[in-house]
Amino acid sequence: MSWWRRLLKRQEMERHLDAELRFHFEGLVDDNLRAGMSVAEARRSARLQFGGIEQVKEECRDSRGTRWLETLFQDILFALRTLRKNPGFTLAAVVALALGIGANTAIFSVVNAVLLKPLTYPDPDRIIQFMLKLPTGITPGASVTKFNVWREQTRVFEDVSGYYVGPGLNLTGDSRPEQLRGMYVTANYFQLFGAPIVEGRAFTADEDRPNRGHFVVLSYGLWQRRFGGDPQVVGKALALSGDPYTIVGVMGPGFSTDPVPAPDVWIPCQFEPNSTDQAHFFLAAARLRPGITLDMAKAQMEIAADQFRHLFPGVLGIFGPQDGFTVEPLRDALVGEVRSSLLVLSGAVGLVLLIACANVANLLLLRAAGRKREIAIRASMGAGRGRIIRQLLTESVVLSIGGGAAGLALGILGVRALLAVNPGNIPRIGEHGSAITADWRVLGFAILLSVATGVLFGVIPAFQASRSDLGETLKEGGGRTGTGTGQNKARSLLVVSEVALALILLIGSALLIRTFYALQNVDPGFDRRNVLTMGMSFSGSPFKKTSQVSQLIHNAVQRVDALPGVLDSGLTSNLPFSGPGHSGLPFTIVGRPLANGSSLGRVGYVTVSAGYFDVFRIPLQRGRVFIDRDDDGAPPVAIINQAMARTFWLKGDPLADRIVIGQGYGPEFADSARQIVGVVGDIRDEALNRNPQPIIYVPMAQLPDGITALMARINPVAWVVRTRVEPHSLRSAIETELRQASGGLPVGSVRSMDEIEGQSTARQDFSMLLMTIFGSSALLLAAIGIYGLMAYSVQQRTQEIGIRLALGAEPGTVRNMILLQGMRLALAGVAIGIAAASGLTRLLASFLFGVQPRDPLVFLAVPILLTAVALLACYVPARRATRINPLEALRWE
Questions:
Q1: I need a labelling partner for 150 at 20 to 30 A (CA). Which of 596, 614, 652, 758 fits?
Q2: Phi/psi at 863 (nearest 5 deg)?
Q3: Alpha-carbon span 353 to 100, nearest angstrom
Q4: Ranges of H-type helices in 67-136
């Protein structure tokens, strides 16, 4: 500290020198006035006589100007000493700022990871994803036929790649069977995404052609886990789903495939160049060639759409005249609808920070009122208004930096805690939020936010304090420095702002809470209780025939149904609540003319076993459900849901008609006409907040071999088991029976339907939780702000209240006077908040379910709640005012 002492001593000497020089100058002026000169002449002569001394003074001024940093350090030291002498005020301000800055830092950490960080691939801004432009909107997806057209656009794109996550591959051949996550990719996938190969190589173009054999690239984790990092593994065979795969390479560690989990193996797609397959089951991406802009690429995709129509004129029902192709930056495509929810949360947390700033600004205003004499004395000793403002702003910034440091730590810890709550499928955050780190963007954001916050909440108190009347302030006593809200407009305005902002956040929270309860009360159309699901992969040569799969299902169902505690079991290609997993296939009704010459439209296509409807207790409306005799030897049948019956059979009887599914989708989907034998109830299979869509159910035992082989490659299956007891208690027994029935196939992704439902609403629940936290914080800060203002008002009006009581005023009258003063501010804030919320809640429309953005119940209940809290915050100081002793109040200073 010796350096600081020397600095302070040097500055003290400079102040003495400046005072001495001014004394000599004024003495010369007085001498000239006594000699009979005018004031102007006396000063002019004094400046001439001052000569060298004036030069010394200017040199001193220059010296002080070059040491502005030392002056800043002095201001900071003074601010630290001042804040240390007021620990209660400092702690309250730092806590409020830490909450506001910490919440903003936590949300910004997620925004940074999801929206701001560049992708880890080479030239990430030039990588695009191919999209389908449909009348209902833009959606990702690709078929082999469309992909073949896209990769011919070599003038615009390079490294056109297709990729998708398969249903899982069964690692067999040793004593440790395991289900691996497999990603199917085209050969140039590795070049497009800059995938590092640490051993061996990637796929060649020849290996990516049909019928060229089985090849695999191992992930670094699988290489270490199963092969101990042996570099000689390249060239060896790996048994996957009953087929030998040649290992050609090993992927380097840390390669990102977000938003999907990192795969264990990569396998070549081996698409047929002359395919007519119209099924959408994978994604496609490419890199823009140098000099090609996004708009140029989109224009080229319009031309490609016309080429596709010319090549496949018979797929009008699949690719209509209003359908088209387009491209989007890969990062935008990955983020999708998450962007809007993160921006809404960022806006909400910004309001919390504004409320915290208003609260601290009010504290500073109250504190400045108690420092009026100190500031007046400093001004009378020569401190200019700018110097005072600078000192007070320095104190504010020092305070905010302290709050920012605490907020940064709180934000980093808070975001970990929040992500542990299950935030839903947010892309780019990594497993359990591992990609969210405090990098330079987060640190810079926290520092900038802290400084900006200090200036924001400090500028009004600084200007207010610097405008004091010196004479009046020095004459008046310490107890009469202010009266009511009429002389404290700034404090009143801040309180009104706090209440308005708090009301906006509370209304948003209430809307999301109502959405949460609305989702909880939605009837999904089936009974999800006591249902256990288990994933299994039918990929590989042993399951290319429908008869093989049908026999496996029959054996497994018999074994599982025989277990004590099991009621029913079955198999499905699409679990409810697992997203839009069912394929949208075209269909026609035999004998019904077509409006567009191709199909009646696209509907959901779900394959199930005979026990599926019994497991989920989906109600049968008409006809019958599937039975074991609905196999490949029986007439083809199908079941539709009520949504499909309402859409396509307004007057007719669907049980009297036959339908043809997948016509025009390619030879794999060639199917004969199916008799509709039943109509079942609608289920919300995509999500609780989405209306049921038309669905066709087809028995797995009657699928054409082409569809069975295709679905085994692109679509996982799930066993579903209804139990009498808690479903997980039978997990081990069910797994054992399924392995024995399937010849040792591993079982993965074991979840109950309750867990799947919770995952499907996780993002809405997460948003509701955050908004509730923000709204509660805002309510607490607003209550503290109102209480602080009214408590200070009572303190400042102690003498006035004592006089009123001495002159006979009733305590109830005094109490009502204080209450009325506070409630005027609260009601003004409520009115402003309602007006603002009625417009801003439209931003929440896409997040709501079962409630309107301007829900009357919310807009009535929330203002009443906030008004009640404000009334309580006003009542405590008002009650204290009625207990003032008039004799003590009259002597109070």
A1: 596
A2: -60, -35
A3: 4
A4: 68-84, 87-111
Model confidence band, residue 370 (pLDDT cutoffs 50, 70, 90): low
Q: Amino acid identity, residue 349?
A: V
Q: Compute how many other C-beta atoms are within 10 angstroms of the C-beta atom of residue 871.
A: 15
Q: What Cα–Cα distance (Å) separates residue 31 from each residue in 35, 41, 50, 375?
A: 6, 12, 13, 34
Q: Mark out the alpha helices in 160-210 (DSSP H runs).
A: 189-192
Average pLDDT rounded to a whole number, residues 431-437: 73
Give the DSSP per-residue string, 192-204: HTT--EEEE----
Reduced to 3 states (helix: H, G, I; strand: E, B; else coil), residue 760 is: helix
Both tokens of residue 228? 């101990």
- Strand, helix or coil at 425? coil
So what's the pLDDT on residue 26?
66
Is 149:522 a contact under the CB 8 Å cutoff? no
> How far is the C-alpha of 865 from the C-alpha of 488, rounded, in Å?
26
Residue 45 pLDDT more than 70?
no
Distances (CA, A) of 559 to 304, 534, 616, 719: 52, 15, 19, 13
d(CA 362, CA 709): 70
pLDDT tens profile 213-235: 999 999 999 999 889 999 899 99
Domain ranges of the chain: 2-66, 136-322, 338-519+762-891, 538-744
Quickly tell me which residue has 């599937």 as its tokens.
626
Note the pLDDT tens digit of each residue in 569-587: 999 988 998 765 455 778 8
The crossing angle, in degrees rounded to 10, of helices 811-840 and 489-520 is 60
- Looking only at the bridges linking them, the beta strands covering 127-134 and 283-288 are antiparallel
Q: Among the ranges 57-66, 117-126, 391-400, which has the highest mean pLDDT value?
A: 117-126
Strand partners, 158: 287
Average pLDDT over residues 681-705: 90
Query: What tokens were used for 626?
Result: 């599937």
Looking at the DSSP bridge assignments, the partners of residue 803 are none
- What is the distance, to the nearest Å, from the Cα of residue 207 to the centroid of all Cα atoms in its chain? 40
Burial of 65 (0-12, 13-18, 19+ CB in 10 A): exposed
- Residues 865 and 783 sit within 8 Å (Cβ to Cβ): no
- Whether 203 and 215 have beta carbons less than 8 Å apart is answered as yes
pLDDT above 50 for 487: no
> From the CB of residue 105, how many other CB atoms can be counted at a distance below 10 Å?
28
With CA atoms as reference, report the closest residue to 265 among 394, 345, 171, 333.
Answer: 171
Q: For residue 261, give the amino acid letter.
A: P
Whose tokens are 């149904």? That residue is 561
- Cα–Cα distance measured from residue 303 to residue 41, given in angstroms and rounded to the nearest whole number: 88
Helix (H) or strand (E) holding 788: helix 762-796
Contact 524, 780 (CB under 8 A): no
Amino acid at 219: S
Q: Are 861 and 779 in contact (CB under 8 A)?
A: no
Tokens 């070549």, located at residue: 268
In single-letter form, the type of residue at position 104 comes to N
Chain centroid to CA 638: how far?
Answer: 41
User: pTM value?
Assistant: 0.78
Higher pLDDT, 155 or 593: 155
Q: Three-state SS for 247? A: strand
